[in-house]
Design brief:
The chain has 1 helix and 51 strands. The chain is an all-beta fold and about 575 residues long. The strands form 12 sheets. Strands 1, 43, 45, 46, 47, 50 and 51 form a 7-stranded mixed beta sheet that branches.
């Protein structure tokens, strides 16, 4: 009987290599027909599926012509203007847009903040105030927008807006920063696309942006507000009923103008990233889960960062940042390390004065893309994420599960990567380097290992490992032990157990290590556990066979055994066991 322990296993591991020689692995290219001419002075952009086709669209605020419009995604990174867009807000200056179902009909609507026009705007300008509205355009689910419903914010210059259910009634509310009133107004949704004025909360001077998160992990939405001229961030903890606590302020870098929420260090507690307009950097504020924040990394970006967005741009499960740099005409992308720090930024050119930023998968390839509103160019640029996220494809040698000792085989292997090419390829056989096409002598009995590693141009690595067995050619037992299992010996007699081994070339093998065990046999069933053999004299050591020049031999003492059927077992250092039955009488 022969028991083979040979195995054949292929293990594939995809590793994102941390190699200092490689730049951060993220890349973007302009979409076809980008930039998109959208109208005069786009200042804000929001992403959503406004026509229900499963493809992301975007809404944009056009400040100088007091309009908001929808562009419908085609699923390939291109967009077309919806048939009744843009829609006028009726104000004298449209500032920010947001997407949400504000009338509860299951279809996305567009909300815009604006400064009132007409008689209201005239009165406000005479009184030294410009006022402010939120205007909701109800969507019909096909990309068309109805006329706007206006709700006054009761404050001056609504500079930014964030959406959430702040009072827990299942209807969307909004928080509006009011630049000239040093305040945030909570607008409580009625569920029909209009709002009641809630609390006006005084924060710092010139609040420019607002973000929503649960900063103290109590299940109630809170607010974070940037105060541009105070160089602070105000945290307003929500009470769950539409009211908020008094602000707690944290220092930010010079002229904070934009803020986003994310978990940048992977601790399950919301953090903040704040763009500093004059300091040309982004500061990370790490949350403690109790509503307090400590200053983390400070990240250099381009000139006058005006907007930022969170996304996983390299699909590694860690949150990254993209930053619109208004005076550099570029977008900075910083890959998160998952511990609150970030890799050096990579820069991607856009057009005049990128002012606002949104993220989404616009061509349905599983990668997060960017939409950039460009104030000076009256356009929106679509940056498609073409980051190489696929490790090299390895071609492994075609190997059998086992080979005979002293066989010669040739390893043929390779690696390909159609996106960024192969930077390096290494192969080892039993830990030693091996080249493609190199013949190898298999003279290591037992498990042998071939490993191939390929690294592409952005340092993504694939590794595959194959294991196979190298075994001796067991030539059978020699007399007096027959191979047919009918050998019968007298109890107490010494039984010489002999065998020979061959290699792939037909030569005898003399270098093997072999041990002898015996085990009681009942029919074809082994009983108990194997027993190490014992020798009657000093010619054999322990249970190990000796080689006498032509054969392996062990003088087995049967004294420790008893009458019945036994299996004698030769255990070789190639991992195989060879057994034959004998009887003792």
């Amino acid at each position: 009987m022969k028991q083979a322990n040979a195995t054949f296993a292929i293990i594939l591991m995809l590793l994102a290599a941390a190699n200092a020689a490689c730049p951060p692995n993220v890349s973007f290219v302009s979409a076809p027909f980008s930039p998109i001419s959208v109208g005069n002075a786009p200042t804000s952009i929001a992403v959503g599926d406004f026509n229900g086709d499963g493809i992301l669209d975007f809404a944009v605020a056009l400040s100088n012509i007091n309009e908001a419009g929808i562009y419908l995604g085609q699923g390939d990174g291109t967009f077309v203007l919806a048939s009744n867009s843009p829609r006028t807000t009726g104000g004298s200056l449209t500032i920010a847009v947001a997407a949400g179902d504000f009338n509860g009909d299951g279809k996305l609507d567009v909300l815009a903040t604006d400064i009132p026009g007409g008689l209201t705007g005239l009165f406000n300008s005479i009184s030294g105030s410009v006022g402010g509205n939120v205007s909701v355009f109800n969507g019909d689910g096909t990309g068309l927008l109805a006329s706007h419903n206006d709700s006054g914010v009761g404050a001056d210059f609504p500079s930014a807006v964030a959406v959430g259910d702040f009072d827990g009634d299942g209807k969307l509310d909004v928080a509006v920063t009011n630049l000239n009133s040093a305040s945030v107004r909570i607008m409580l949704g009625k569920g029909d696309g209009t709002f009641n004025q809630g609390n006006q909360i005084h924060v710092g001077n010139h609040p420019t942006s607002v973000a929503v998160g649960d900063f103290n992990l109590d299940g109630k939405l809170d607010l974070a507000v940037t105060n541009a001229t105070d160089d602070t961030v105000s945290i307003l903890l929500g009470n769950g009923d539409g009211t908020f606590s008094s602000p707690t302020n944290f220092t930010a870098h010079s002229r904070p103008v934009a803020i986003v929420v994310g978990d940048f260090n992977g601790d399950g507690k919301p953090d903040l990233a704040v763009a500093g307009l004059l300091s040309s950097n982004v500061v990370v504020l790490l949350g403690d889960g109790k509503g307090s924040f400590s200053t983390g990394a400070t990240l250099a970006v381009g000139r006058h960062p005006s907007a930022l967005v969170v996304g996983d741009f390299n699909n590694d499960g860690k949150q990254d940042l993209a930053v619109a740099n208004r005076l550099s005409d570029m977008v900075s992308v910083l890959l998160g390390n998952g511990d609150g720090t970030f890799a050096m930024p990579r820069y991607f050119p856009v057009h005049g004065q990128p002012m606002a930023l949104a993220a989404g998968d616009f061509n349905k390839d599983g990668k997060v893309d960017l939409a950039v509103a460009e104030l000076g160019d009256n356009s929106v640029s679509i940056l498609l994420n073409n980051t190489d996220l696929t490790p090299p494809v390895l071609t492994m040698p075609n190997l059998a599960s086992s080979y005979t000792y002293n066989s010669t085989i040739t390893f043929n292997f390779g690696a390909t990567d159609p996106e960024t090419g192969i930077k390096s390829m290494q192969a080892t056989f039993n830990g030693s380097p091996v080249s493609n096409g190199q013949p190898v002598l298999l003279n290591q009995p037992g498990t042998n290992t071939f490993t191939l590693t390929g690294t592409n141009g952005v340092c993504l690595t694939s590794t595959q490992t194959i294991t196979f067995a190298v075994t001796y050619n067991f030539l059978g037992f020699l007399p007096p032990v027959p191979n047919n299992g009918i050998g019968l010996f007298k109890l107490g007699r010494t039984v010489p157990v002999k065998f020979q081994l061959g290699d792939a070339n037909g030569a005898l093998v003399s270098t093997a290590t072999a041990a002898l065990t015996v085990q009681q046999l009942s029919g074809t069933t082994l009983l108990g556990t194997p027993i190490d053999a014992t020798a009657p004299g000093n010619s054999d050591t322990g249970d190990l066979f000796r080689y006498d020049g032509t054969q392996y031999i062990y003088n087995l003492s049967t004294n420790p055994l008893f009458t019945g059927t036994w299996q004698i077992q030769v255990r070789l250092n190639d991992g195989t066991v060879h057994g034959v039955a004998i009887g003792l009488k």
